[in-house]
Amino acid sequence: MKKRARFVAIIFLLIFGIIHFRLATLQLLHTESFGKHQINLLENSVSQRTQTIQIDDGRGHFLDNEGNPLSYDVKNVVILFPFLKYIQWDKEKLANLLAISVDQIDRQLKEHNEPFALASIGPIELTAVKMAEINDWNIPGLIASEKLYPKKQIEAEHLIGLIREDPSQLKSRYPHLSLPASIPIGIEGLQASFDSFVIPEMESRLIYHVDAIGRPLFGLHVKYAGNANPYYPLNIRTTIQTPIQQVAEEILTKHDVKKVELL
Question: What is the architecture, at CATH level 2, of domain 48-254?
Answer without folding.
Answer: Alpha-Beta Complex (3.90)
